[in-house]
Design brief:
By secondary structure, the protein is α+β, with helices and mostly antiparallel strands. 54% of the residues lie in helices and 16% in strands. It has two domains: 154 residues, no CATH class; 100 residues, LytTr DNA-binding domain (OB fold (Dihydrolipoamide Acetyltransferase, E2P)).
């Protein structure tokens, strides 16, 4: 492998390591920009302040309950969302399936939430739970919080492709250019290598770098009909110019890209991919 390829592999490893953090931060930033989040959070805090669960009605006055439940509601929700997305993103490549990865990520995310709730109890009451049984009970409650956060966010968040704005067309735009290319940051250029579905996002790789775009792969595929490429797997689209060859191992088939990334080919698409790469379809 030449020096350029080694550098590329190093950059890709760094990207994979950082993509979980990047993805989790984007999800939190997206949440904080939504008016619905703040309205829902305010409503939840108001209910907690009025009802005063966990003995807070008797121990705290109204301003104290507002500070206590406001802090806990905001911190635990943001932490739960960030930790669940971050951990699930790290775990998923090893587990494959999305839902088990989210479930395990949620259980692990309850650990920092438990620490935060314990700290809040210490700050406001000075007498947090100290027994192992009490901490275990607190962790169980925080697992419920983490599951609720993950469920509410997953149901309320815009799915990839929803609310995707139309592509702006510049006055000097090439009328024959694939619309998808106008979505890319200028630093990435327009020489596509591959697209990979990543939860609500697409990981777009070009000859100059990569980035994440909130969009469905099927929608991107429609905008790339004028660009030589093919969807070879439910999660992958590859550019024809980036395909270096076909690899087969047992009953599995993959395409090797010019950047040494190996992309799986769905069983049902194998004949079409072979025909496409042989040039028989005229692509």
């Amino acid at each position: 492998m030449n020096r350029d390829n080694l550098d590329y592999v190093d950059r890709r490893r760094d990207f994979v390591d950082g993509s979980a953090l990047q993805f989790a931060l984007r999800e939190v930033q997206g949440l904080l920009r939504r008016p619905a989040f703040w309205i829902g959070l305010a409503a939840a805090i108001a209910i907690l302040v009025v009802t005063g669960p966990s003995g807070t009605l008797a121990h705290f006055n109204a301003p104290e309950r507002l500070a206590y439940w406001g802090s806990i509601a905001f911190v635990t929700f943001v932490t739960g969302l960030f930790a669940t997305n971050f951990l699930a993103r790290l775990i998923r490549p090893r587990m494959g399936a999305r839902l088990p990865a989210i479930a395990l990520g949620t259980v692990l995310a309850a650990i920092p939430i438990t620490a935060e709730v314990w700290l809040m109890d210490f700050v406001f009451s000075g007498s947090p739970v100290r027994t192992l049984a009490g901490i275990g009970s607190l962790y169980g409650m925080c697992v419920v919080i983490a599951v609720s956060v993950s469920t509410i966010y997953d149901l309320s968040s815009p799915k990839s492709g929803e609310d995707t704005p139309p592509v702006p067309v510049a006055d000097d735009a090439d009328p024959g250019e694939a619309p998808f290319l106008r979505r890319l940051p200028a630093r990435l250029g327009k020489e596509l290598v591959s697209l990979q579905a990543q939860d609500h996002y697409l990981e777009v790789t070009t000859a100059k770098g990569r980035d994440l775009i909130l969009m469905r792969l099927s929608d991107a595929e429609e905008e790339l009909t004028a660009y030589p490429g093919m969807r070879v797997h439910r999660s992958w689209w590859v550019a024809r110019s980036a395909v270096a060859g076909i690899e087969t191992t047992g009953d599995r088939m993959s395409v090797r890209l010019s950047n040494d990334v190996i992309v799986p080919v769905s069983r049902g698409k194998r004949p079409a991919v072979r025909k496409w790469l042989s040039g028989q379809d005229g692509a």
